[in-house]
Amino acid sequence: MNTQEKKKLAGMPKVELHLHLEGTLEPEMLLNLAENNSVSLPYRNVDAIRAAYRFADLQSFLNLYYLATQCLRKEQDFYSLTLAYLRHCRDENIAYTEMFFDPQTHLEHGVPLTVVMAGISAAQKEAEREWGVLSGLILCFERDRPAEGTIALLEEAERIGGIIGVGLDSAERDHPPGKFQETFAVARALGLHRVAHAGEEGPPEYITDALDTLFVERIDHGVRAIESPELLRRLREEQIPLTVCPFSNVSLGGFGSLQQHNVGRLLDAGLKVTINSDDPAYFGGYLTENIIATWEALGLSFEQAVQVQVNAIEGSFAEEQKKRDMLQNLMSYLDQH
Ligand SMILES: [Zn+2]
């Protein structure tokens, strides 16, 4: 991608579909929250935290991630966290984003769901009003916890209102999606959208399992689909969107470097690939940086970057009219630049 194209990409209206709000907690905010909420962290300053952001694998990242979430206590904390990410969206021209949150972690820390959701919702409204940044919220269940209690949690979230769907995240290895079949069936009956992390560290079978038992509409990550020609064919034929997160995959050791990432091969195979930042505070960059660095490492074209944005619009859970508007905005931006 040349300098001109990079500029064009930066200004282009974009969509993000795989983003954990807790993963946007930057070291500076983490230190402030720890102090305000009297939580003691094993890090004295921002440099010490950044040094801790060198992970061996998904589990080592999750250990730090869950430690940091202990500093999120009050409605104001969730509001500030969400608003800071949505301000990033404004600055990067991300017009629409679908954000994950992990309520079970916060409940374990004694923070009620109403507090978490009130803070997030206030920030969503403010970002829409002030900057025109639109967002949806997806409640994630942590797959390494028991499925018991997740239906009650889902029903409580529905009573509060404000979620557009459910997801499945956290440590994938040895935690196949099927365990949450019943919970996802309830979500489906409630008219909620469904996604799941699968094929990140887990085998391709987990992707198939998520499609067949949880009836997910998108696969988060899904990069290990490449190991199964049969699954690749299915993903292509059914045009199941994959929310690929290159910086995250490299940070957690899924690929040795961006040059070794398989996103170019997935695109060549005709899959509906999207690019996302996952946990940008931890993995070295937000959406635009993910796209530019990956495209440079793999020598992908500007047209492929546009294709990925079209995929993200089509693969989003925005209403049909909103999708048409977003496609229209993208095309008129490209015409004008
Ligand atoms: Zn994720």
Automatic annotation (TrEMBL):
Substrate binds at D279. Keywords: Hydrolase, Metal-binding, Nucleotide metabolism, Zinc. Binds 1 zinc ion per subunit. Its EC number is 3.5.4.2. The active site is at E200 (proton donor). SUPFAM superfamilies: Metallo-dependent hydrolases. Pfam families: A_deaminase. The keyword Zinc applies. GO terms for biological process: adenine catabolic process; hypoxanthine salvage; nucleotide metabolic process. The record marks H221 as: Important for catalytic activity. It catalyses: adenine + H2O + H(+) = hypoxanthine + NH4(+). Zn(2+) binds at H18, H20, H197, D278. InterPro entries: A_deaminase_dom, ADE, Ado/ade_deaminase, Metal_Hydrolase. Its cofactor is Zn(2+). Residues 13-331 form the Adenosine deaminase domain. CDD domains: ADA. GO terms for cellular component: cytosol. It comes from the Bacteria. One of its GO terms (molecular function) is adenine deaminase activity. It is an enzyme of class 3 (hydrolase). Belongs to the metallo-dependent hydrolases superfamily. Adenosine and AMP deaminases family. Adenine deaminase type 2 subfamily. Catalyzes the hydrolytic deamination of adenine to hypoxanthine. Plays an important role in the purine salvage pathway and in nitrogen catabolism. This is Adenine deaminase.
